[in-house]
Write a structure and sequence with these properties.
The complex is a heterodimer of chains A (311) and B (237).
Chain A: H1 2-16, H2 19-46, H3 53-69, H4 74-97, H5 105-127, E1 132-133, E2 143-146, E3 149-152, H6 153-175, H7 177-187, H8 189-194, H9 199-224, E4 227-228, H10 234-247, H11 252-272, H12 281-295
Antiparallel strand pairs in A: 1-4, 2-3
Chain B: E1 6-15, E2 18-28, E3 32-37, H1 44-51, E4 59-64, E5 67-68, H2 74-79, E6 82-85, H3 97-104, H4 114-124, H5 126-130, H6 141-153, E7 159-163, H7 171-185, E8 190-195, H8 198-204, E9 207-212, E10 215-220, H9 228-236
Parallel strand pairs in B: 3-8, 3-9, 6-7, 7-8
Antiparallel strand pairs in B: 1-2, 1-4, 4-5, 9-10
Helix pairs in contact in B: 3-6
Classes of the chains: A mainly alpha (311), B alpha/beta (237).
Chain lengths: 311, 237
């Protein structure tokens, strides 16, 4: 018995450090980090946990499938995805988030639940439970050699895309006046308005940026999971939300790290667990989340007591 | 009255059923400091908050050069040229001195260069230039108060409201705050100064209103500065 266990553990460890598993895990972590930033940005400025974030990605996925089925060029498909996701984000901001500004967090959370399931139901009516296929970028699943190691192209692309997107975001937040206004609004919204920061502008910009990140997430996720169904990205969103809370919801940096960490762990476990045990993956990850939160309730990547910028 | 920079007429504010400001009227002209003093809970801060749109007025009106501000959002009022130095300063402690000042630029109407605007407030408060890269939270109380005033001034407002700017400050800093106010009044700003330090306020301001229980009770001029305390005590007794 113990010999079986020991050999199982050895197999697991060997697979866990396998370069391909590591690369896939980092790629998944990168996508989750992008989603975490999107959720964290909106939370920072609007004080609202957008549970409907996954449905934005789902809508982007259907846009990509629409373009793919019609044989549109890849660029056109991505453009459609961005337009659909950002447009939907703005509509959501205008008719749900903005009127609820200043309401209790519980009301806002329930409102985003409602939006999430509304969008999911609409997708079910329009596209059916089996969904559509977005296969324009599916060849990114092919391997590429880096030195002596072969990894999937999408892992490299995901990591590179996330790094570029995050760098651009950091530049925007730190080097532009709208970025400064967003940081101020995240720290103290009433005082920011008092000095002349336009509440509607910062809220719209936060939502548009989160939408751009969701569209990016949709493009990258459809490569991994080309079948877009009405529940597309739902599980990932819940995992990312857990990651954001795990990392520390109040700070964009810690939320991003939390998103990356949970995606990475998810990827390593998914790659290293034997096939007959992979159905335990989600329960395993969430058991880990509970343990971490018990040990560090304020978040894994927050520095105790020190106040750092939220955005 | 309508040509005053700022005019408050018959202002009524209530928190729920509790009236906080009852029928208050006064005006502040360009190049004028008007003081507003009175005991805690008299309605001084509430009056300021109603002017800048943080609390809704139940009745009456606030006008900026004859233009009503009723129903405007705080950011719109700020952008129209009314700047508040709030009680407790309300700085962004985690942002640098310079970032706090750049935030003040959000409300600026004229499009001069940001550098010139910063240079002007640095001339008034040299310590802010020295510490421009420091976090606002790392400054001393007196430096923070200078930053709060500078953040308001950098927007080049036509009306400056100050809510107890001398609260908790060392005497030398209080001197600096009061002398700075006298200096910027001479540039044509309309200043409304809410204070606890009755005597100094009466001495500095062109007129000082005494507020009690949400109503204006008494108007004092610098001639009354010698025995302000006695006058107020006699009046409120």
């Amino acid at each position: 018995m113990s010999a079986v266990l020991a050999s199982g553990l050895t197999d697991f460890l060997r697979d866990a450090v396998d370069p391909q598993v590591q690369a896939d895990a980092m790629g998944l972590g990168a996508i989750f980090a992008l989603m975490a930033v999107g959720i964290g940005l909106v939370f920072g400025v609007l004080r609202l946990i957008n549970f409907a974030y996954g449905q934005l990605i789902m809508a982007g996925g259907f846009a990509l499938a629409f373009a793919s089925e019609r044989g549109w060029p890849v660029v056109a498909g991505i453009a459609l995805c961005v337009v659909v996701v950002v447009g939907l984000s703005l509509v959501m901001e205008r008719i749900v988030f903005r009127p609820l500004r200043g309401q209790s967090p519980a009301s806002m959370l329930v409102a985003t639940f409602a939006v999430a399931f509304l969008l999911q139901s609409i997708a079910l009516i329009w596209f059916g439970p089996l969904g559509k296929n977005a296969i324009s970028l599916v060849e990114l699943n092919q391997p590429v050699s880096i030195g002596s190691v072969e990894v999937r192209k999408i892992s490299v692309v995901s990591l590179a895309t996330a790094l570029v997107a995050l760098a651009l975001l950091v530049l925007l937040l730190n080097r532009t006046s709208i970025g400064l206004h967003m940081r101020a609004a995240a720290l103290d919204f009433p005082t920011a308005r008092l000095v002349g920061v336009r509440a509607n502008a910062v809220s719209a910009v936060a939502v548009v940026l989160a939408g751009l990140l969701a569209a990016t997430g949709a493009v990258l996720l459809t490569v991994q999971y080309p079948t877009v169904t009405p529940t597309f990205a739902l599980r990932e969103t819940i995992i990312v939300l857990a990651g954001v809370v795990l990392g520390g919801m109040n700070r964009l940096y810690s939320a991003t790290l939390g998103g990356f960490a949970i995606g990475y762990v998810f990827g390593v476990l998914g790659g290293a667990l034997p096939t007959n045990q992979s159905q335990y993956l989600t329960s395993f990850v969430f058991a880990l989340v509970i343990v971490v939160l018990l040990l560090r309730p304020e978040g894994l990547f927050t520095r105790g007591g020190r106040v750092v910028e939220r955005v | 009255m309508s040509d005053s920079a700022l005019a408050v007429s018959e202002l009524e504010v209530a928190y729920g059923a509790v009236p906080a400001v009852r029928g208050v009227s006064f005006a502040v002209g360009e190049g004028e400091i008007v003081g507003l003093i009175g005991p805690n809970g008299a309605g001084k801060s509430t009056t300021l908050h109603a002017i800048v749109g943080l609390v809704p007025a139940r009745g009456g009106d606030v006008t900026l050069r004859g233009r009503s501000l009723r129903g405007w959002s705080p950011e719109r009022i700020a952008r129209a040229g009314v700047a508040l130095v709030p009680e407790g300063r309300r700085l962004f402690a985690e942002l640098t001195v310079e970032e706090n000042l750049r935030l003040g630029l959000a409300a600026r109407r004229e499009n001069g260069s940001a550098r010139d605007a910063l240079a002007e407030v640095f001339a008034l408060f040299p310590v802010l230039e020295e510490f421009r890269r420091r976090h606002a939270g790392a400054l001393s109380g007196g430096q923070q108060q200078q930053l709060a005033i500078a953040r308001a001034l950098v927007a080049k407002p036509s009306v400056l409201l100050l809510d107890e700017p001398s609260l908790g400050l060392a005497p030398t800093i209080v001197d600096l705050v009061f002398s700075t106010l006298a200096q910027i009044r001479d540039r044509g700003l309309a200043i409304l100064l809410v204070e606890q330090r009755a005597q100094r306020t009466v001495a500095l301001a062109d007129r000082t209103h005494v507020l009690a229980n949400g109503e204006l009770r008494l108007e004092l001029t610098p001639r009354d500065a010698g025995d302000t305390d006695r006058m107020i005590a006699a009046y409120l007794a």
